[in-house]
Amino acid sequence: WMTSGTLVGPITISDTTDSTTKDTGALILEGGLGVEKDVTVGAAVSVGSRLFVKGESEFIGIVTFRGGTIRLGDGDTDDVVVGGEFASDLVPTIKRMEERILRWYS
What we know:
The protein is mostly loops. It has strands at 95-97, 100-102.
């Protein structure tokens, strides 16, 4: 087994052990993982802590957020652009801002 060096060419691991925790699966790393190019995952991805994404993100299908707070933007110069319709039971909070009342309109 190698303890250091550089491997050239594709590396195939034929073990098909599924991963259910950070310590199970066909490949287990104790250190970090740096990837120079794209990553394609054929099944679900589970992140045990925080997920940081830079640049643009695209979600195709249904996205579900459970519990906690959803924050969009971090300043009054950020735009939140939504295409389509809102189908929800959300109840707006009425706030006074520059002597205008902001509320949902039907």
